[in-house]
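Record filed below.
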Amino acid sequence: MTGDAARTSFTIDRVLVAGDTLETTFRDARVAALVRERSATRPLALTVALRDAVDAQTVPARLAELAGPAACRLDVSIARRGEPLEPLVEGHDALLACGAPPDGALIIRAWQRGRCVVNSVEQAARVALFEDDYLDFDAGRAERWYSIMEGNPIIVTNPQHIVLEYGARINPRAVIHNESTVSIGRGSLLGADAELNLYTARFVMGQFCHTSSYFAAVGSRHTLHHPSTFAVSRGPYAFLGEPADRVGDIVIGNDVWFGMRVILLPGVSVADGCVVGAGSVVTDSLTEPYGIYAGNPARLLRLRFPPHVVKWLCAIQWWTWSTRKLFGAREFFRTDVAGLSEDELWRLVDR
């Protein structure tokens, strides 16, 4: 990345809340977290779009009750009943979709437009206070984005269970079968043609990770101890066997790079700073921070850096730095640190 960046402040100030009824929407804990956690110094504009008819005076009163006396000023507007929601997404920084189930197509559309989609209570609390730098190196893009789904996915079973943090990206043609949470951390990229076949397993990717094309994560294994391995949860033969005999969460640390066609099997974790070679099959957890792994099954080949550098990198946890600090230390990220002493490393980041 070269050249100058246009730095602007990025906040979430306009939120579209879409739901079915007034009661179910305002019972949603995400709505309460959003309005309660917002700083009293910054107003929050909320547009409420409900399928059912609602009294225009009732909505601001209910939101004020949720917010409490010390919360921010709420600028509340009510969308016309039946008004198309996709155009409304354009005028907002974030979408909070309620309902059982919420509108999955609207969630995906919001990501495609670069919007924040608030899919957990914890994320709602973070979004309420969110304020960060936006460094725009892409002069050709008309607007900023918080998180983005580029192109079209093939299928996303439950988009309402997916949390994309600031700067997270999903490339085209993703296949995501999830009944539980998928979390993609700040700045991380799920590369093109990824397949997350998770069943009920969670998938957690830390900050500033990168998967190359055709990455796959498998959260469950077909049953082996029954007469048949057949495991289909729908259709005329769903009565045969069990869906799985092993389900395991997949947890990836920070600053991890996966080469093309890497496969992660149920229950594995990957330590911070790892590199996993193309075509590898990860059958057991990769526990060595900053290790280079490859093979089927994936095995440790060597460390990326000498042990004292690995220890130092694990200690500073640069992925927790603010955007402004990361930008200020950009020369550090362009430096070969393998041969540096600890004093030299500290001088590099303290410039």
User: Anything to note?
Assistant: The chain has three domains: 1-142, 147-304, 307-349. The first strand starts at residue 6 and ends at 11. DSSP finds nine helices and 28 strands in the chain.
